[in-house]
Amino acid sequence: MKASPNPAAAAGATTGNGASSLLPGIALCLGVTAIAMAVQVWEERATGHPYIEALVIAILFGIAIRTAWVPGERFRAGIAFSAKQVLEIAVTLLGASISLGAIVASGPALLTGIVGTVILAIAASYAICRGLGLPARMAILVACGNAICGNSAIAAVAPVIGADSKDVAGSIAFTAVLGVLMVLGLPLFIPLAGLSDHQYGVLAGLTVYAVPQVLAATVPVGLLSTQVGTLVKLVRVLMLGPVVVAFSLIAHRLPAEAGARKTERRKLGFARLVPWFILGFLGLATLRSLGLIPEAASGPVKQLAGFLTIMSMTALGLGVDVRVLARMGGRVTLAVTGSLAVLLAISLILIRALGIA
């Protein structure tokens, strides 16, 4: 009879294997990130201005690689780590370079407008999805993903409404693809709608799915857009808690659907509703606003955050299969894109209504 393995040794081996399993994917992301940054440097030397920022180049390279070659199992853990944990660290560090005074100066009208935009977007998106024949639970997932924060909102709402796993997977797949398209296409609204840097920051914060994607969409435009966009987005993300609670209260009223799971009645923890990196960002931003983080330290931290953001955008691109749109039904495609168009329209109307300069 074999002796049982030493628990401590087994734990150590597991930890070591877990860390080493991340290395191939992280190395791939670092390599693509280095190339993207080198291309930007070449642009600057050749033209005097980086017309395409390293953030965007990293996403495009990642998508191109993913389209031509599907990374094997050994790369996936590191890519997933770079796309999630690395970007969360980047967002947290960005707080050290942003003053909360920017959003306070915007006044209560903007804060009220953000809340109203989220509520209107959820209602309108749900109506569009149901009108196109999508099941109620998938309509809720699409609506919350568009209106709040993409994958995070879908993952948080799905269990409380008992959504089917296929609906969750389909919603997240679309979020991944459209999230990248938003990052690449949103700057076109600057000339089309005649937006200032401040206005564009508000638009990005109201419409782009994830906080790091807001950075990717605003950093090439300017510091003001980045600051405003990030802070508006954070307020929008904080709406996730009330929305999840609201749907948990009405979940039992949703119509019975094939494949729908029994809704979970577990207690909703604070950590589930407010991600740790949001708290970290707000904490560092508060310290920066109080003058407890000196300017000398703010610069290097911002540079590190920028590098990690580019790395996470590389991972985001490596995880996007553009062919997923072709495999999804026409009704789902129309519902998701229609919901996103409504969110853009509501956001532009809010910017004009509030007279944001």
What do these coordinates show?
- This protein is mostly helical and 357 residues long.
- The chain has a single domain (22-353), classed as Na+/H+ antiporter like fold.
- The chain has 17 helices and no strands.
- Helix 4 runs antiparallel to helix 5 (136-149), helix 10 packs antiparallel against helix 11 and helix 10 (211-218) packs across helix 15 (295-318).
- Mean pLDDT is 80; it is low at 1-16.
Q: What is the average of the pLDDT values? A: 80
Our Rg estimate from Cα atoms comes to 21 Å
Shape: globular
Helix content: over 70%
Architecture per CATH nomenclature, i.e. the level-2 architecture: Up-down Bundle
Reported for the largest beta sheet, the result is:
none
% residues in beta strands: under 5%
- Look at the helices and sheets and give the structural class: mainly alpha
The ordered string of helix (H) and strand (E) elements is HHHHHHHHHHHHHHHHH
By CATH reckoning, the class would read Mainly Alpha
Distance between the termini: 77 Å
CATH topology: Na+/H+ antiporter like fold
Q: Please count the helical segments.
A: 17
Number of domains: 1
Number of strands: 0
- In the predicted model, the low-confidence regions spanning at least 5 consecutive residues are 1-16
